[in-house]
Specification:
Blueprint (H helix, E strand, L loop, with lengths): L1 H16 L5 H17 L19 E2 L4 E4 L6 H10 L4 E5 L3 E6 L1 H7 L1 H7 L2 H9 L1 E2 L5 E2 L8 E6 L5 E5 L9 E11 L4 E3 L3 E2 L6 E5 L5 E3 L7 E10 L6 H15 L5
Parallel strand pairs: 1-5
Antiparallel strand pairs: 2-12, 3-4, 4-7, 4-8, 6-14, 7-14, 8-13, 9-12, 9-14, 10-11, 10-13
Helix pairs in contact: 1-2, 4-5
């Protein structure tokens, strides 16, 4: 029923966006859409503890988060990302997200070094070693738009609301965030902490467990963050692949063209 609600809501919103000026209906439908997206998480666990950089143990599969300052220093990759920002797609979904993004396909085209890094075995092993009780880590399905992305906040009010990084795969999904441009007051927030992701900083966490958001961007500010997604089991059914793709098309604009 939750999936059905999402599909119906999205279809109606598309009709409205094609020219029907019913502002009150837009508002109510946007609220319903937000609830449907949140329903896809299937997560009710509340985060109780968070580990920061001062700890020697890394992330655990139960839901902690690790923040590493100046972990990633690669000017060539950063330059690629900055040069590709004009190619990004802007999407605004009321109560959910507003901002720009580059999808996996965009990165393959405009950021080849970053694209190679995502699937580099040595890099993946580094990420795995940051985790606790995670014996293996894999790249996502080749059709996953969201697996390797860049999120850009360049207008006042750009943000993403509270959410989980739902895994549609058989395994857990871990999110890696890397700061590329930090000229913004926007911050990554969990239910217990706030993180200022500066250039080169890396954050890694189990998106299935940690509820998080990015606070609104300020006027004339710019924030760009690389996002890698890795899974402990890359198996995914056609139905869940469809749901994942639908979500990415609506919320991030991936694969629309």
């Amino acid at each position: 029923f939750q999936f059905f609600a999402l599909f119906v809501t999205c279809a109606i919103m598309k009709v409205l966006s094609d020219g029907v000026s019913l502002s009150s209906a837009r508002f109510l439908l946007a609220q319903a859409f937000n609830k449907a997206v949140q329903a896809l998480s299937f997560v009710t666990t509340t985060v109780k503890d968070t580990w920061g950089i001062v700890y020697t143990p890394a992330v655990t599969s139960e839901g902690q988060i690790k923040f590493l300052e100046k972990y990633f220093q690669n000017p060539a990759v950063a330059e690629e990302v900055i040069n590709a920002i004009p190619k990004s797609v802007r999407v605004s979904v009321p109560f959910v997200r507003k901002g720009r993004a580059l999808s996996r396909a965009d990165i393959a085209k405009y950021c080849p070094q970053l694209f190679e890094l995502y699937s580099n075995p040595e890099w993946i092993e580094q990420m795995r070693q940051l985790l606790v009780n995670v014996p293996e880590l894999h790249v996502c399905d080749p059709q996953d738009f969201h697996a390797c992305a860049v999120y850009i906040y360049d207008e006042e009010g750009d943000y993403i609301n509270w959410h989980y990084d739902k895994s549609f795969y058989d395994g857990d999904r871990f999110t890696v965030l890397i700061g590329v441009v930090d000229e913004s007051s926007a911050r990554l927030q969990t239910e217990t902490d706030t993180y200022h992701i500066k250039v080169g900083d890396l954050v890694i966490f189990n998106g299935n467990i940690i509820r998080h958001r990015v606070t609104p961007n300020g006027k004339k500010e710019l924030r760009a963050v690389i996002s890698f997604e890795y899974v402990t089991n890359s198996a995914i059914t056609p139905w869940r692949r469809y749901l994942s793709t639908l979500k990415d098309r609506i919320v991030y604009g991936f694969g629309r063209s």
